[in-house]
Known about the structure:
Layout (H helix, E strand, L loop, with lengths): L10 H17 L3 H7 L5 E6 L6 H4 L8 E5 L9 H13 L4 E7 L3 H6 L8 H14 L1 H4 L5 H21 L2 H8 L5 E7 L6 E8 L18
Parallel strand pairs: 1-2, 1-3, 3-4
Antiparallel strand pairs: 4-5
Amino acid sequence: MCDGEHRSPLAGLLENNRVWSETMQAEEPEFFRKLVDQQSPEYLWIGCADSRVPANEIVGLLPGELFVHRNVANVVVHTDTNCMSVLQYAVEVLKVKHIIVCGHYGCGGVRAAMGATPYGMIDNWLRHIKDVYFRHREALDPIGDERARVDRLCELNVVAQVYNVCYTTIVQNAWARGQELTVNGWVYGLQDGLVKDLKVSVSRPGQIPQVYRMDTTNGV
């Protein structure tokens, strides 16, 4: 098969990768060697899978400095073994100091959760966001502008997921061990590229409702 006649549709991406690799090595010759030796990020990013929200670039961090988990609408579900595995590895092995749940305004998943249009299997996932909407419907329904209503639910969804992270035994066991760990909630603006700090930061069990606090006195 001749490359000239049958150019791969991914050839452009491979060329981009080659240029990026050469640029990184020119700027910092030891960059890739350091990456191979270890990764020691201080942050776990739980964000949306939206292609417009590149986690590392938003906060100006290089590969190796941000551990990342992404899914539709940045939802944290305790039965999601993917998310829980990432969380456990980040907390117990990498010893991250900050977990950042970052949503974004105009999130398609959040918008879909506010409606009744069926999309297939993903409807089961969006149910978790519908639960957030239902809990806050008295505050959300009076918002006349649809975009503003969606954006407000994007914020409320982030807050809910911050607490879902804190309700896990993974995080609470870390606190019981005396490990420094704070869970934070942010929202990214597609329109200007800026992150809004929602001022929700949880760093100890006393900041979550009593019913969700686990008894860690037995050293579980």
